[in-house]
Amino acid sequence: xxxxxxxxxxxxxxxxxxxxxxxxxxxxxxxxxxxxxxxxxxxxxxxxxxxxxxxxxxxxxxxxxxxxxxxxxxxxxxxxxxxxxxxxxxxxxxxxxxxxxxxxxxxxxxxxxxxxxxxxxxxxxxxxxxxxxxxxxxxxxxxxxxxxxxxxxxxxxxxxxxxxxxxxxxxxxxxxxxxxxxxxxxxxxxxxxxxxxxxxxxxxxxxxxxxxxxxxxxxxxxxxxxxxxxxxxxxxxxxxxxx
Length: 243
Description:
Blueprint: E1 7-18, E2 21-32, E3 36-40, H1 47-54, E4 62-67, E5 70-71, H2 77-83, E6 84-88, H3 98-107, H4 115-124, H5 141-154, E7 159-163, H6 171-188, E8 191-195, H7 199-205, E9 208-213, E10 216-222, H8 225-228, H9 232-238
Parallel strand pairs: 3-8, 3-9, 6-7, 7-8
Antiparallel strand pairs: 1-2, 1-4, 4-5, 9-10
Helix pairs in contact: 3-5, 4-5, 5-6
């Protein structure tokens, strides 16, 4: 798959170590611009570490990461995190209203969010304007995720990193978030990199898939590799023999 698309983000021989423990080892590969790529693999494979490297929360021990051919080390950290948004399973919020949470990214840049802009962003994620003044503590899990994703849209991120954002949701909320992510990808052309343990989700939502194991990339390709791979590890992982 490597030569069939324009890369939005590229890893070149990336290592990441903590206390002499190698978490990622010689990672090389590209994430296609404007597509949804899912990251799958057993717990401890290094998936979340990869996401943190993508927006500068941590820096590689060795190797290079490029966004549109520019090294992430050359970005201003605030600008990098505006360009590369992230939504987490826990959907962390500051205390206060939905509007205060939506306004935070712009306040960090010395700007102000108008109520009309906030209403438009909420509409983009399927929430009514009455949510603006609702306390975040009163939101359901699905609503919190929608607000978390809306907050990344405030930044007009070109790349969106998702870390298990549906794993704690009921089936109805899970489907709503899946539909929202596909909408954001198709409507705004946002590149999505999505960690999921739900292989059905990876197959249905992903355009491409990376399979990781013990800090290595085992296989990458169209998401149907999850049902057609000849790699013994991938076959065993998909069949649930490896967790």
